[in-house]
Specification:
The protein is α/β, with parallel strands linked by helices. The protein is globular and about 65 Å long.
């Protein structure tokens, strides 16, 4: 089979790879669609992010859907032809974090397309995959396989909301309205946020944020003064989600959040400085959020039942043989949000 493999920065290849043998608790799946994530772009553009570097060729991708081709002898309830969203989260279930219900912090996590451990965990941008039975989440007949591949980034947003606690009736700011930020807005609307303000530096993501349920959008490049009214009286937002990884956006959050508000950092932007005076004086509760696990099933349910509509996030679909073009398109934020690669076997 063929896979999309990154060797180093700007060295992306479509290569022949070997499919492992099918185990009794596993499924052989024809991959349908794979969404290009920010981490995939970091591997392609820079050879990694922060201290994480590519040390060996790695198949990229972790936002995928597919169609079951065959199943192991011990798998029940999933038949050939079943259309599925595929969770990329494969915790060991045995370490102390798994035992504490913190599966996203598993000490032996095998998360698709991650260069964090070595040897690297190979990703899901391949024509076929062998997956564990528990990774398969059936999708509704009306849901397209393209939309099903959004379950992963939606799960990231759902876990971020879990980290924030209740947003019911709250005033919420989201900075950074790429795919995760926009899907987060859709989830916030479902979770009962009273008012959602979305901020970004480009018009395309703000248009998507509006379609996903934002009450107000602010372009921080052209209308930054629109935030001034949210800075008065020590701030107006109960909860802030910073999904861009930008230091400037994080400072916007500090300026506009209420005392004792909750600030969730979703985006990874590397090491930045913090306004410690504000953090201390406003008693801001700043929390990180990382990946997800149990939220994947909820994300698939929300997509299956139409509780979150992710269609506005998808801006391009490119066939696998033009994968390099797909990555370049995904890197152009002036015209792209979520770009997906279409794999042929499941779509034939």
């Amino acid at each position: 089979m063929k896979s999309v493999v990154c060797h180093s920065a700007k060295d992306l290849r479509i290569e022949n790879t070997e499919l492992p043998a099918l185990g009794e608790h596993q499924l052989r799946v024809n991959v349908a669609y794979g969404g290009i994530c920010g981490s995939d772009l970091h591997y392609y553009q820079h050879g990694g992010f922060g201290t994480v570097r590519i040390k060996q060729p790695i198949a990229l991708g972790h936002e995928v859907s597919g169609v079951v081709e065959s199943s192991g002898a011990a798998v029940t309830g999933i038949a050939k032809g079943q259309r599925i969203a595929i969770s990329p989260s494969r915790p060991c279930g045995q370490c102390r974090f798994c035992q504490a219900g913190q599966h996203n912090h598993c000490l032996n996590m095998r998360f698709y397309g991650s260069a964090m451990p070595f040897p690297h965990i190979q990703g899901a941008f391949s024509e076929q995959l062998i997956i564990e039975g528990y990774q398969a989440h059936p999708i509704a007949d009306h849901l397209s396989l393209s939309e099903a591949a959004l379950a992963e980034p939606l799960s990231v947003g759902l876990h971020a909301i879990q980290r924030a606690g209740s947003v019911l009736g709250k005033q919420v700011l989201v900075t950074g309205c790429g795919p995760i930020g926009s899907l987060l807005i859709g989830a916030l609307r479902r979770a009962g946020a009273a008012r959602i303000v979305a901020a970004d530096i480009a018009d395309l993501p703000l248009k998507c944020a509006k379609e996903m349920g934002a009450d107000e959008t602010i372009n921080l490049k052209t209308q930054a003064e629109a935030l001034d009214r949210y800075k008065v009286d020590k701030g107006q937002f109960d909860v802030v989600f910073e999904a861009s990884g930008s230091e400037a956006a994080l400072r916007v959050g500090f300026d506009t959040i209420v005392p004792r508000g909750v600030l969730i950092t979703v985006g990874m932007g590397g090491d930045i400085s913090l306004p410690m005076t504000q953090l201390v004086a406003k008693e801001i509760d700043m929390r990180g959020t990382f990946r997800f696990h149990a939220e994947f099933a909820t994300a698939v349910r929300f997509l299956n039942e139409g509780l979150v509509n992710g269609k506005p996030v998808i801006t391009g679909i490119v066939p696998m043989d033009r994968a390099l073009e797909a990555f370049d398109l995904a890197a152009d934020k002036s015209q792209s949000l979520k770009v997906q690669i279409a794999f042929s076997k499941a779509l034939a």
